Every structure is written in C-alpha cells, then in structure tokens.
Amino acid sequence: MSTHTQLAVIGGGPAGLRAAEVAASAGLQVTLFDAKPSVGRKFLVAGKGGLNLTHGESFDRFITRYSGPAQPAETWEKLIAGFDPAALREWAAGLGVETFQATSGRVYPKALKAAPLLRRWIERLRGLGVRFEMNHRLTSLAPGNPYQLGFSNGTTAAADSVILALGGGSWTKTGSDGAWQEIFEKLGISQNPLAPANCGWEHEWSPEVLAAAEGKPLKNIHVSVGDQTVIGELMVTRYGLEGGAIYQLGATLRAMPEPALAIDFKPTFTHEQLVAKMESVRRDFLTEARVRWKLSDPAHAILSRHTWTDAASLAREAKHCVIGLTKPRPIDEAISSAGGVCWNEIDANLMLKKLPGIFVAGEMIDWEAPTGGYLMQGCFATATRAAKSAVEWISR
C-alpha cells in the first residue's frame, strides 16, 4: 500500500501535532504518521505532573533558558517570538482549556490534566482533515520529488514535503527512542549523540547519610557549578541527587571532566552571620548548628560527613558544600534529552539544507531547556516555524 500526501508529519508528540495543525489550518493535505497505536503518549506522561505548558516570566528572561551547541545568534528569540507563551495560552483557550499561572510562574491547565486537552486537540485536527496513520514506524526516507517514505509495517508513502518531529531519546516506552538517528546517518545529516537532560546525577552516599536523608528535599538552597548559580530544590536519592536545581545545571555538568556542584544551605545568611549565631559554642558544633541555623534533616546529614571542631569551618561548609558527581542517570529515566540534529544542518526555517522540503521540529534538534514549561514551549515554537515554512515551500 502506498499513499500520497502534500505534507507528511512524522511523529505524534506535541511538536508533530502542532505542525499538523498549523499546516492543515493553512489548507494543506496533511497525513500524520506515528510508530505507536496512538498519538500524544509522552504528552500524557508529562500531564501526570499537571502538564506544565509554559512559563510566565519576562520574554527576555524566557529566551535565555534555551541552550545548545553552535546555535545561530538570536535563534530562540526569533523562534519563541513566532509562538510565545501568550500565544500558547490563547491556543489552549481556543480548545476550551483554561490555564492559570502558579506562584512559581509555571502555567498549567486549570484541570491539571493532559487527557482532556489532547482529546480536543485531536478532534480539531480531524476536523481540519488531518489523516492519522498509526503503527507506522519510519524506517527510510529517500530524496525525490516527491519524497519517498518507508515504514516498518511494509507500507510506503510519498509526500511533497515532510516535517520530522521524532523526539529525543528519553521515555522510550512513549516512542521517543532516537531510532531516527540511524536514518539521518545514512542521509549524511550531522548530529550529536543523544544525552540525558533534566535528570538526576549519581553520588555514592554513605549508609548513614541515606538513612537520615533519602527521599527528603533540600529547600531554599543555592546550587553552583563554576560561575553558574541557580535557586531551587534538590532531593537526596539512593543513587545521588534529583531535582529542579540540578536539571538547570545539567549542560554545564556534562561538560566537566570531573562534575561537581556546591550547595549553599543557608543563602540568606553570610558566613559571618552563621558564625555569630554559634556564639560561645565550644563543642558539638553540628548539633548546635542544627538548632541555631535551623538545618533540615538532609542538610544536617550531608554536613555530618565530616567532624567539625570549630564554627567557622562548619559555616564555610554550610555555605559551600561541594558534592562530587559521577554521571547522569540513564537517558531513559531523563525527562528530556540533549543532542540531535546539528544546527548547521538546518536553515532559519528549520529546513534541512541537504534535503530541501524536509523540516525538523521539537526535541530531535540539538537544544535543551530546564523543566518549567520551556520544553513544551520549545516544541510548539519549533513546530510552528517548521509548519509555516513547509506551507510556504509547498505553495512555491
């Protein structure tokens, strides 16, 4: 069986669905192919945490959240400007899904669920005439006019233009397994290896630290790696550390030959102020500090790795506690992945320079961002750009 379509969208995650929506709304005949029996599987997994759609911080701050090697200047300023957080909230409202901004700045659907939004989104796509072809895993892509697509179920398809939104390498059970990299390698498209992003990092704790701290959060802390400092939380886990603070530092940690971070357990106090709070203490320094500095259980447990004989040394450690890390957790445990198609392989319209008429969107491009709504916004923004570009390409 072979089919022909004006635009083939490969991948049924947020980027693929958004690309299909934009293109179909412009009047294109769109067929969306996905390897799984249904679309939006990773979207639904993200919804278990409330579905953080975007973030309400200022535009200037927002665009600094995106990173990746060799990105052209102003890449994300232009991409996000083409479909910004306000536009995403307006889009959700158009589906009858009201959103709200939490005190953290994160934006969620009021129902804190992904399924209702996904159902309405699919209904809209069907209403626009988008054809869904499930259980179609892409295995080959042959240049031509039209392009020829091959799938693992033995079917083929032809398309005047193609948008690839095949995801990264995290949460493979949802279909995001990075298998597309082999196809790109055969086509001579440069790519960087997929790596875990927004994930925990490993550190071997002593049994004593784990007994007192495992599963407990370190709140209101500053975490530093080199000259980069973030404010957030960490969780002590059996394998090491997890949490938003370390997610933000992942790219920097991966670039270090010997990754390590430093925690300031008491960022609102100076070293001198902490020492002054100890007053005339001459022994049991850590026991006294637990009360006088109001140390949390995990902070106290981590500081107990050493024996303290004076308040000044303990205060220095509380302000700059270095924890060495061995490696990130496996990519399949990560919330997202770094690596993917190199930016020098695509133009400003997200079209592959070596394969005119083929566009890429979402996490398969080599970019990363921390959790907080930036990942979803990035997928929507790149998909919007790719789809508009494909519409223009076909119209020419």
Under CATH, the topology of the largest domain is which?
A: FAD/NAD(P)-binding domain
Query: So how many helices?
Result: 15
CATH architectural designation of the largest domain: 3-Layer(bba) Sandwich
Category from helices, strands and their pairing: alpha+beta
What is the class of the largest domain in the CATH system? Alpha Beta
Could you tell me how far the N terminus lies from the C terminus, measured between alpha carbons in angstroms? 29 Å
Oligomer: single chain
Mean pLDDT over the residues:
95
Q: How is the main sheet built?
A: 7 strands, mixed
Low-confidence stretches: none
The shape, in one word, is: elongated
What name goes with the CATH superfamily of the largest domain? FAD/NAD(P)-binding domain
Tell me the strand percentage band. 15-25%
Helix content: 25-40%
Number of domains: 2
Number of strands: 18
Gyration radius from CA atoms, angstroms: 24 Å
